[in-house]
Amino acid sequence: MNARIREAGTDDIPALAALIRALGYEVDEAGVGARLDELIAEGRRPLVAEDGRVIGCLTWSLTRVLHRPRPVGRITMLVVEEGVRGRGLGRLLVEAAEHRLRREGCGLVEVTSNLRRTDAHGFYERLGFERTSYRFYRSLTG
User: Fold this and answer.
1) I want to staple 75 with a disulfide (CB 3.0 to 4.6 A). Which of 5, 14, 96, 111 is the partner?
2) Reduced to 3 states, what is the DSSP secondary structure of residue 57?
């Protein structure tokens, strides 16, 4: 597959919204566009995989913490279009994110994955990620 990885731009909003909906999230293009603008303003532009059209996306963040000497990078979303999964696009996106996080001074990268996404768990383990903790959350809305 002749895909390339690049930073997302506003022309990608329709494709990004479709990919996010494929993960099961209810989003519209206006909301995706607004959040993309915020990520760009914060210096956290998402990465996309394309082969003439956008077929994958990865978002990331960086957190400074007191208990580690270097910032912690996090992959906050990774999605590849279902019809092209298994062709190495996810790996390319993760490698591009890791390169960026290293450049930002991060000492490690972490990822969370919904319990029901067992295929994703296997994908991350094949890339060398280890399950080391549980994630707990509580909604602050409603």
Assistant:
1) 111
2) strand
